[in-house]
């Protein structure tokens, strides 16, 4: 366990499972107190909280639906209030709706835009009331934002590509405040939603240069670096942690 993030407080949206849980645990390992949001599964969120507390860190699980801007703002404010400050915001929560463009309805489009685009924007707005000099904003995008290898990914790909503009615009806007803003694009990652032993895993792995899925910890390692003091001169960057998927 390192102390790189001692005395820091992080909020990880969608931190109860998969990549989000991996990020929450890694930030705690590096010394941060961590709040995380979840939409439905309180039990899984509580498990992550217990794991963080077992490391000697403070932890907090907040129920919040990313499609509800009021809930997103409330989660940010509660994390800062209950843990005393906010230094790191990780926009991880997302929905993954797949289908042909003429099959997905307006409700699907609205939900994807609300959770994958509007929620990170709203979370940043709320976080800026709490982030001081040296603050960190890190969003989690996707490899399919750069390379959609299967049909049916248009809506999701569009939503994740929007985070590139959010990241670069914010980096320029917040640079004078010494707040860095970066985007991490994971490749195929072994989670419940996309298991490394799933029916399409062999084909998906074949698109990577290394021929395998990542672990959530692999993505979390890059996020932890971007959250650390050592990454103070990295901002506006789009970093692919994808095993060479986009190479």
TrEMBL record:
InterPro entries: NAD(P)-bd_dom_sf, Sc_DH/Rdtase_CS, SDR_fam
Domain of life: Bacteria
EC number(s) on file: 1.1.1.100
Keywords (A to Z) from UniProt: Oxidoreductase
GO molecular function list: 3-oxoacyl-[acyl-carrier-protein] reductase (NADPH) activity
Family stated for the protein in its record: Belongs to the short-chain dehydrogenases/reductases (SDR) family.
Protein name: 3-oxoacyl-[acyl-carrier protein] reductase
Lineage of source species: Bacteria, Bacillati, Actinomycetota, Actinomycetes, Micromonosporales
